[in-house]
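Final report, results section. Input specification for complex C-07:
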Amino acid sequence: MKIATWNVNSLRVRLPQVLRWLDVHRPDVLALQETKTEDRDFPADEFQRSGYHAAFTGQPAYNGVALLARDPPHELLTALPGSDDPQRRVLAATVGEVRVLNVYVPNGQSLDSDKYRYKLEWLAQLNRWLGELLHHYPRLVVLGDFNIAPEDRDVHDAEMWRGQVLVSAAERAAFRSLLDQGLTDSFRLFEQAGGHYSWWDYRAAAFRRNLGLRIDHILLSAELAARCHGTRIDREPRAWERPSDHAPVTTELS
DNA sequence: ATGGTGGCGCGGCCA
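Structure output:
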């Protein structure tokens, strides 16, 4: 089973790239973030023609998450439990025997921002939900744009980034809490080296110079981690014309 | 050079 995640930074702009990528890689599940698409405008028909069912929760201009799946997704949830947050950042569904939780974690903007406090509170809510999720769904994958580089080796220049948003100690502690509850960063099951990134700023030719961060993750419950054969970051679409600033990440499970 | 690029939507916000 192939499960992938991709922050597309506008599905309207990136639809041809997503269809192209799906056609080549044929994942069983693709989680999208930053669709920036209202539900009534979601291009479900286009994905249907490519053999994918779609589940989605979106809003105009910002946020928005979706799941594309070859088998129909069911038991949909579109928010953190008990949350009345209007920002569309969560989509959970069951596909086959796997529970999939697609997240678009808030960016946080800067450490002195209200958005940073919102990010940490959002992560605390996710952490509070996770124990229950793992209890109910031993085959759980939590994936998406976490907007956190977990360790210095996930950052192109750790000294330059030190203390900034996406790498701060509080964000990393929140990410670590997800792992401590029983999730595994599937990328690190197979690759220990630095220099592997999933996001590169549009500015300053960051991709060409590989000045990136690894902030898109596929986290697996113990049962799924034991079945994981590999997780890779596909840099190819980042080099296409008019790319997303994020690369897709894919994991393979037996 | 507190810049740079991109998306949304048409001014300013967000990443």
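The radius of gyration of chain A is 17 Å. Residues 9-10, 12-13, 34, 36, 60-62, 107, 109, 115, 147, 201-206, 242, 245 of chain A lie near DNA strand B (CB under 10 Å from a C1'). This concludes the modelling results for the funded period.
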